[in-house]
Design brief:
The chain has about 80 residues and is mostly helical. The protein is built from 3 helices and no strands.
Amino acid sequence: MADEPTPRQVLYAIVAGAFHVVVGVLAVASVGLAPMWWTVGVFLGWAIVAAVIIRQWRRTGLVLGLSILGFAIWTVGAALLLT
């Protein structure tokens, strides 16, 4: 039973996954609007964070923090680039 995830871990994994999906959708939506280097950088960061999240999904603080950080970086960067 010690290997069974807690409800909190599951909830944080779902929330982190949702943030990650949103960043992926926003990155795809910005293709053609933002410079190519930004799009490539966002996709590479997205893939790296996805790999960490998949391997470390039980570490709730890390997973949620990385997902929110990715969203914040995309939001601020896109706002600066698209204005």
